[in-house]
Amino acid sequence: MDLWVTEYQTPSLGFSCKVKETLRYEKTEFQELSVVETEQFGKMLLLDGMVQTTEQDEFVYHEMITLVALNSHRNPEKVLIIGGGDGGTLREVVKHPAVSQATLVEIDERVVIASKDFFPDLACAFSEPKAEVLIADGIEYVKQQHQSFDLIIVDSTEPVGPAIQLFSREFYQSVYDALKDDGMLVVQSESPFYNQNVIKMAFGGINQVFPLTKLYLANIPTYPSGLWSFTVGSKLYDPQLPSCSYSQGCKYYTPEIHQAAFQLPAFVSRII
Ligand code: AG3
Fold it and tell me: Which atom of ligand 1 has the smallest separation from the CA of 9?
């Protein structure tokens, strides 16, 4: 008997992978969490039925959500990650030579535990001396910070369930206040094919609060449509201009990709 896992990416489109084994299925306090071993992408983490990360293609998302900002900020010493409980974003952040302290605030401890149990290449960062992991509500945490961080990365799920407020203007304003004078924000902002409203909400909200807002793209095979967007809000530095070319061990990010990622297809430019 063949077993397949399907994410319904739109009401009329499914993305399916053949499953070798179901490793975990649970309802946490916040969401439905599953870990399956797929034939194509290795282990896959899903939250509320949506693919979050897979062993085979996680490098694209995790390098691209971190290095664009880390390499264009002149001195990204203190970094805050909101969400990202699998640890992949944290792994890239602590690797960067400019970073001295990385704090991860994840609302759902079960995600961190699932990563420790099944994704050693992501969870490796939790025990790094530069890393601090807090199980808390990122929105409340950010409200209590004032000019404390150089870079804040929002590694969230879709704007449904626990993540919905992470796409609001009020949240972007508290992120702005939590950043230093030359701080930067990066958020994952979904697919230009299927989530144009999310991009409008993220880009529009960030643009109301930050002086400089830019969108960039990466190809992620297991996310809806494979074309994924990230939005950066910056107080000072242009995120499109790297000041450092750190890319050691990278499989997707290069200094050339950094520049190229900001070149938008015409239909994407029209969304923002
Ligand atoms: N966070 C963004 C996942 C969005 C995927 N959306 C979907 N499958 N419909 C990923 C967390 C990785 N650290």
Answer: 9
